Predict the 3D structure of the following.
Amino acid sequence: MMLDSESTLAISAVKLLRKLSFVMLLKTLLSVVVFVFIVKQNVQAAGPERLYLTTQEWPPYQTYASDTIAGLSVNRLKCVLRQLEQPYQLTMTSWKNAQLLVQDGQQHGFFVAEQSKARDKYAIFSEPLIFHQWRWYFSDNLNNIDLTSEQTNQWQVSAEFGSNKWFYLHEQGFNVEKKPRNINALLDMLIHNEVDAILVDGIAMQIALKEQGMLSNSFRSQTMATKALGLYFHRNFIKKYPMFLSKFNQTITSCIEN
């Protein structure tokens, strides 16, 4: 059967349209796949629907009053999570329990803490959220407060039980007394000359002294070191949301500058 030129052109046009339709359909499908992939990546980067973090009461870094958790570290943390648009829930408990809840996978992270080898085994440390000082406070009964003196081996000292300071004193061979659970217990030991010196957070000690109606220079003191405090996130959490920590760390910088 012979076809005229117009029929031939019509058939060619139909074939071309079919070919173009197929190409457009393929491009659309590819666009959908790419879009789904990007959305999935963005969801992973954004973190969970709600971030569960736990902490201890440790003025001035974490405080609890009128059903509100606040403090220096909490304010900075809220700044970070606000900029990330990350919903969250904060729980306050004992320091030991806060770490156990994360270790057991019941919470995503705990704060604020110093980095340690024991914590690194099950969690990943963030960039510093805030800094604090390790500071020695000395009893009035102690004549020589030279930390380089050999007499330090004879001192009776203490720090908050279970803290990095507590373990440091043991590692350095100090005679560590009792197991005080908070700064107020340590201050009481110092007031009653039950120890020669205590190793504490400098700002926390100033608050404790003020609450007791004492002057900030009531005891001789020396700064030992400045330490970084940050958040620990469970390793399984970071594995599930691999982009979260880098975004979290980047946002810390802007909150510190502000």
Remarks:
- DSSP finds nine helices and eleven strands in the chain.
- Residues 32-44 have pLDDT under 50 and may be disordered.
- The first helix runs from residue 5 to 46.
- The first strand starts at residue 51 and ends at 55.
